[in-house]
Amino acid sequence: MQVILNALKATYNFFVGDVILLAGAAVAFLLATVFLHFAFAPGSSTGNILGAVALIAFIVIGLIATLARELMGRK
Amino acid sequence: MTGAEIGVLVAAFLASAVEFVEAFTIVLVVGVTVNWRSAFAGTAAAAAALAVIVGIFGVALVHYVPIEALRLVVGVLLVLFGLKWLKKAIMRYAGLKAMHDEEAIFEEELAEMRARGEEPSRRFDPFGIVTSFKSVLLEGLEVAFIVITFGSAISSGNGGPGVGILYATYGAIAAGILVVVVGALVRAPLQRVPENTLKFVVGIMLTSFGTFWGGEGLGVHWAGEDLFLLALIAFYLVVSGALILWLRQFGSASAGKGARIPASKPGPAAEAAAGLSTGEGGQ
Question: How far is CA B270 from each of CA A40, B97, B128, B198, rounded to the nearest angstrom?
Answer without folding.
Answer: 52, 19, 17, 14
